[in-house]
Specification:
Blueprint lengths: L3 H22 L27 H8 L3 H14 L4 H13 L3 H14 L4 H13 L3 H14 L4 H13 L3 H22 L1
């Protein structure tokens, strides 16, 4: 007969194995930072405002500094653009300039505190800085605002895995897969 403490340790071990199995079974889920498509032949995002489509194209071409200049020009014309600050934050994040990325995402959140896209990106900055507690808080806020948010569920699942809570992470990974299945079903 197993001692209760061994059983508890075994349960934790099995949770970790199950979480790893979930990740391996669903490999189509990619890191979820909301960034601009990197594929050269990718179609422009329908969500992006027309004035930022050129920025998206510059980013696809790897012309980061030119993209940053375009965003900054547009923000000087329209300083209340949540999307502009979000794009600027993404650019800074890609350059590993986390202080400026944080500032850009904070400006976007001042303009729209309920922007799940911005909160996901801010959470990813915290992950990059290994501030998992703050990242978890942002991803949980995303899910409070939009429980089915695919990026929020995936990102929170990753943070929970990193924090040693694999059984809780499984719930969020399964929501990602479920949401993806629902979208595929609606297209048919």
């Amino acid at each position: 007969m197993l001692h209760p403490s061994r059983l508890a340790g075994s349960s934790s071990k099995w949770s970790g194995i199950l979480a790893l199995a979930v990740i391996l079974l669903f490999p189509t889920v990619a890191p979820a930072q909301q960034s601009v498509p990197a594929k050269k032949n990718a179609q422009p995002s329908s969500k992006i405002q027309p004035q930022y489509r050129e920025v998206e194209e510059l980013l696809r071409q790897g012309l980061i500094e030119q993209a940053k200049e375009k965003v900054q020009e547009e923000l000087s014309r329209n300083p209340s653009s949540v999307e502009g600050y979000n794009l600027l934050g993404i650019i800074y994040s890609d350059q590993k300039d986390y202080a400026n990325a944080f500032e850009a995402f904070q400006r976007a959140l001042q303009l729209d505190p309920n922007s799940t896209r911005t909160r996901n990106n801010l959470g990813n900055v915290y992950v990059a800085q290994e501030k998992l507690g703050r990242a978890e808080k942002e991803f949980r806020e995303v899910l409070r605002l939009d429980p089915g948010n695919r990026d929020g569920n995936y990102n929170l699942g990753l943070v929970l895995m990193a924090k040693g809570a694999p059984s809780e992470s499984i719930t969020h990974f399964l929501r990602v897969r479920l949401e993806r299945g629902k979208r595929a079903f609606r297209r048919k």
